[in-house]
Amino acid sequence: MQTTLSKGDFARRIGVTPGRVSQYIAAGLIGPDALDGQGRNAKVVVAKAIEQIRQRRDIGQALGNGLSTKLGLDDNELDSEPGDAGPSADESTRPTKTPTIDDEIKRERLESERRRNRIAAQEEAVRRGQLLEASRVKAEMTKLAQAIEDENAGMLADFASAIAAEYQVPQRDVLHLLRRIRTEKKAGAADRARRRAASLPEQTETILEDNAA
Fold first, then answer.
1. pLDDT by residue (tens digit) across 74-95?
2. What's the CA gap between 89 and 156, in Å, rounded?
3. How many Cβ atoms sit within 10 Å of the Cβ of residue 140?
4. Do residues 141 and 132 touch, judged by C-beta distance below 8 A?
5. What are the two backbone dihedrals, phi and then psi, of residue 4, each rounded to the nearest 5 degrees?
6. What is the C-alpha separation between 16 and 187, in angstroms, rounded?
7. Are 71 and 49 in contact (CB under 8 A)?
8. How far apart (Å, rounded) are the C-alpha atoms in residues 59 and 99?
């Protein structure tokens, strides 16, 4: 059978003042079908009233002073008809619960907590050196490659001078030959690097593990 409480007892049950319950009734958050009787002596049908408050109060109130409101239901407060098995009945026979604002708040809180945990894990991995920003790595590798390129280019004149002196040929001709060979080799190396890069995935997954003791 339905569990009913006086307005004062119902107010204590959900953690609000009796005046707040009266406001719920006046505003339609608790409808006439959730009241047993009429007037000041009407009692509140607990399960139905709680479900109506869950569904009808606005999100602003739920996130504000409504957070302290106790809108959970005990098994003995669930509506049941005479002859029902009550809480011991097969759970699969109970009707599907309609999602409420409270359910949405819980989902949002859970997602927010998961998001904070993901961000914290990423920041910790960065501090440990497990993760690096791709743009920073690319910039550093580009600088390194350019430094090597400049160093090698500067050596060609020295190579040409040594070869010219050894074989008694014009240094300019030797330098021109070395530069041409170097350009051809660079083109081949760049082509091989592009083919290797094309076979790599754009993104890779990594598992962040807590290595702390």
1. 555 555 444 444 444 444 445 4
2. 89
3. 11
4. no
5. -120, 150
6. 78
7. no
8. 13
